[in-house]
Write a structure and sequence with these properties.
By secondary structure, the protein is an alpha/beta fold. The protein is built from 12 helices and 10 strands. Strand 2, helix 2 and strand 3 (61-66) form a beta-alpha-beta unit.
């Protein structure tokens, strides 16, 4: 059997309409890649399509069907069954750029032969907005050394838009397993845990300045749709609390890693706070206050670190004018990050 350099897990729930595009884009990597189609209890032809690809490409594609457990459960299933040295998640409505994927395979092949032991590869991703027809590339040129092995000490300044997201990372499979990553089931927005919890276990990194991941946004039923995010705010709060509990950031010795993780946690607290304020009910405002109280009770020192970030303290303002500032700050951040 050919050694698998890369496992790409494709979580699928009723994805029959568009999953073939995702699968076909990964097939361009050739036989050194493995595709795990995780059928998460679909009721359409998702399993049928996955099995057809498995029959056609038995050395590359596996279709694993399971009871519905949500995106995190599908990611867990992919990781549990992965045979590749490296692991990446591709959502079923997204796809990879062919030339960039072939370059990734070339770099993985070279680094494995050289015994580099990279824990995390990073590549650019592209927002593909179907409503505006526009693309927005998120790259890390100003934040990371390009095309070389580096550590957290080598990081530069991260812009607002330069967050390490699920779209941009490829993890070493053994490192993910060793750090005990297991995402919660029946929960949206767990991708934030995926790119937060493992970071203290990441020692060596490599940034490829290529536009690998094409992130499709604009569908009305998408989990990042603003109205849907407000309806699912309790799940966002759950993810926030899991992130708060994942690490005592005050104990992380590497200063740049500590600062980055604090910034990311602050961003997640900001998003939850903005949506709770935007809902503008007595219950939602109470939940906002309870979330910040949870952080303070878990670790007053960590709460102080978050408060020193740009939006940390303003997100806790309680006056009517303060709530308007919170919403304005969120909308500005949304445009900078690339959602709009």
């Amino acid at each position: 059997m050919i050694m698998k350099l890369l496992t790409v897990a494709i979580p699928c729930y009723n994805s029959a309409e568009y999953m073939s595009h995702a699968i076909e884009s990964v097939l361009k990597a050739g036989s050194e890649a493995e595709i795990i189609v995780v059928n998460d209890g679909s009721t359409d032809d998702t399993e049928k399509i996955g099995k057809e690809y498995e029959r056609k490409y038995p050395d590359i594609v596996r279709c694993i069907s399971k009871e519905n457990g949500g995106h995190g459960s599908a990611v867990n299933t992919g990781l549990k069954n992965a045979r590749g040295l490296y692991y990446k998640v591709l959502d079923s409505d997204d796809w990879f750029d062919e030339a960039s994927l072939k370059y990734v395979m070339q770099i993985l092949r070279r680094d494995v032969l050289c015994g580099e032991g990279i824990d995390m590869y990073i590549a650019n991703y592209v927002y593909e907005n179907q409503n505006t027809g526009k693309e927005k590339v998120i790259n890390y040129r100003s934040a990371m050394p390009v095309e070389k092995v580096f550590t957290w000490e080598d990081l530069k300044h991260f812009k607002v838009s330069q967050n390490i997201l699920m779209h941009s990372v490829i993890y070493r499979t053994k490192m993910l397993r060793d750090c005990g990553l297991e995402l919660p089931e029946h929960t949206f927005y767990v991708d934030n845990i995926f790119v937060f919890q493992p970071l203290p276990n990441v020692k060596k990194m490599y940034y490829m300045d290529i536009d690998l991941y094409r992130y499709y946004i604009g569908r009305v039923d998408q989990s990042v749709n603003e109205d849907i995010m407000i309806k699912r705010i309790d799940q966002q709060i759950k993810v926030n609390k899991i992130m708060i509990d994942a690490h005592d950031l005050t104990l992380i010795k590497d200063e740049k890693l500590r600062k980055y993780m604090t910034k990311y946690l602050t961003m997640m607290m900001t998003i939850s706070s903005a949506f709770l304020v935007k809902a503008d009910t007595e219950e939602s405002l109470k939940k906002r206050d309870e979330l910040w109280d949870y952080l303070r009770k878990t670790s007053p020192e960590m709460a102080d670190m978050v408060n020193h970030c740009l939006l940390g303290r303003p997100m806790q303002m309680k006056s009517a004018a303060g709530r308007k500032i919170i919403i304005y700050g969120y909308m500005l951040s949304r445009r900078l990050i690339g959602f709009s």
